[in-house]
C-alpha cells in the first residue's frame, strides 16, 4: 500500500487517540476535584444527603430522555438489572462517600476508587474463575500496601475520626466492585447502564430524601451561588457528563487504556485537595497514593497485555 493510502488511516487513528485522551483527561480532572469540592460542601454548607440529592436528582433528570430513547432496544432483563445498579452504585454508594468526606480528608477517598481494582479482581477470580496474572498480582500488592499506608495515618490519628470515614470509603469501594461485576455480566452498554443507574437512583432516592432527610436539609439555607455550583458539579458534571466522557474514552482508547488513565486519580485527588482545601498530606499518605496509582496502572496494563496477546493468538 502506498504512503498516500496509509496517510489518512494513520491520521484518523491519531485523531481518535487524541480525542480519547482528551475525554479521559476530562474524566480524571472532574473526578479528582470531586472529593475536595464535596468535602468543602459537607463540612461548611450542606448535608451528605443533600449531595446525593443533587447528584441523582439532577443527573437522573438529564439522563431520563436518554433512557426513554434507549428503552426500545433494552433487553428485558435490563429493567431488573437497573435496580441492582442503583442499589450498588447509586445513592447508597454516594451516601457512603459523602458521609465519609464529612469525616476524613478528601484524599482518603482514594481508599474507595483505589481499592476497586483489588476487589474486582478478587470477585472475578472467585466467581468467574479468571486467573490473576503475575503483573496484576504486583499491581494488587502495591494497591494493598498503599491502602495500608493511608489507613495507618488514620489509625495513628484515631482521635480525629478519620478511620470512620476510611471505613465508609472501603465499603463504597466494595459496593462499586460488585456493581462493576454485575455491569460486566449484564451485556448492557455503558450508556444503557448509566441511564438505568441514574434514573432508578432518582426515582428511589427522592421519596427517601423527602421522608427521612428533608427536615435536616440545608439546601434552602445556603447562598444561591453555592447551590448553583454544587448542583452543576454534582448533578451535571458527576451525574451525567463524566458518565458520557468515560464511555467515550473507553470506546476510543479501549477499556484497558482508559483504565490506565484513571490510575492518576489517587495522586490527582491528593494534589487537588491541597490546592482547593489546603489539606497537606503526610509522607505516608503521599507514598500510599503513589503506590495505589502505580498498582492500578499495572493492573490495567496487565489487562492491555492480555488483550494484545489474545489478538495475536
What does this structure look like?
By secondary structure, this protein is an all-alpha fold. The protein has one domain (14-312). It has helices spanning 3-44, 48-70, 78-89, 91-101, 110-113, 116-128, 134-156, 162-186, 190-213, 224-253, 255-262, 265-277, 283-312. The longest helix has 42 residues, at 3-44.
Category from helices, strands and their pairing: mainly alpha
* Rg from Cα: 20 Å
Instruction: Calculate the mean pLDDT score and round it.
Output: 86
Largest β sheet strand count, sense and barrel closure = none
Number of strands: 0
Q: Which regions are unreliable across 5 or more consecutive residues at pLDDT < 50?
A: 1-5, 8-12
Total of helices = 13
Query: Which series of helices and strands comes N to C?
Result: HHHHHHHHHHHHH
Q: What's the structural domain tally?
A: 1
State the share of residues found in helices, binned by percent: over 70%
Q: Categorize the overall geometry.
A: globular
Give the DSSP E fraction (strand runs of 2 or more residues): under 5%
Roughly how many Å apart are the termini?
Answer: 25 Å
Topology:
Elements: H1 3-44, H2 48-70, H3 78-89, H4 91-101, H5 110-113, H6 116-128, H7 134-156, H8 162-186, H9 190-213, H10 224-253, H11 255-262, H12 265-277, H13 283-312
Helix pairs in contact: 1-10, 1-12, 2-4, 2-9, 2-10, 3-4, 3-8, 3-9, 4-8, 6-8, 7-13, 9-10, 10-11, 11-13, 12-13
Amino acid at each position: 500500500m502506498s504512503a498516500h493510502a496509509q496517510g489518512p488511516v494513520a491520521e484518523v487513528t491519531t485523531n481518535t487517540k487524541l480525542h480519547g485522551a482528551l475525554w479521559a483527561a476530562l474524566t480524571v480532572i472532574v473526578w479528582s476535584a470531586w472529593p475536595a469540592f464535596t468535602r468543602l460542601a459537607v463540612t461548611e454548607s450542606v448535608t451528605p444527603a443533600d449531595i446525593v440529592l443533587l447528584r441523582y436528582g439532577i443527573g437522573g433528570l438529564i439522563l431520563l430522555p436518554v433512557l426513554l430513547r434507549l428503552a426500545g432496544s433494552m433487553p428485558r432483563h435490563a429493567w431488573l438489572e437497573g435496580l441492582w445498579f442503583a442499589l450498588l452504585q447509586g445513592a447508597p454508594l454516594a451516601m457512603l462517600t459523602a458521609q465519609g468526606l464529612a469525616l476524613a480528608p478528601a484524599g482518603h477517598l482514594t481508599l474507595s476508587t483505589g481499592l476497586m481494582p483489588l476487589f474486582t479482581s478478587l470477585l472475578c477470580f472467585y466467581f468467574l474463575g479468571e486467573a490473576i496474572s503475575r503483573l496484576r498480582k504486583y499491581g494488587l500488592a502495591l494497591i494493598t500496601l498503599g491502602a495500608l499506608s493511608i489507613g495507618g495515618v488514620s489509625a495513628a490519628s484515631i482521635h480525629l475520626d478519620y478511620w470512620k470515614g476510611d471505613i465508609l470509603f472501603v465499603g463504597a469501594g466494595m459496593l462499586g466492585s460488585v456493581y462493576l461485576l454485575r455491569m460486566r455480566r449484564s451485556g448492557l452498554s455503558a450508556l444503557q447502564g448509566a441511564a438505568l443507574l441514574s434514573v432508578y437512583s432518582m426515582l428511589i432516592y427522592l421519596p427517601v430524601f423527602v421522608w427521612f432527610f428533608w427536615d435536616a436539609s440545608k439546601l434552602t439555607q445556603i447562598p444561591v451561588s453555592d447551590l448553583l455550583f454544587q448542583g452543576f458539579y454534582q448533578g451535571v458534571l458527576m451525574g451525567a457528563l463524566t458518565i458520557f466522557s468515560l464511555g467515550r474514552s473507553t470506546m476510543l482508547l479501549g477499556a484497558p487504556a482508559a483504565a490506565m488513565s484513571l490510575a492518576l486519580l489517587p495522586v490527582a485527588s491528593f494534589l487537588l485537595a491541597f490546592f482547593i482545601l489546603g489539606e497537606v498530606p503526610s509522607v505516608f499518605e503521599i507514598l500510599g497514593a503513589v503506590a495505589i496509582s502505580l498498582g492500578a496502572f499495572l493492573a490495567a496494563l496487565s489487562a492491555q497485555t492480555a488483550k494484545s496477546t489474545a489478538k495475536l493468538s
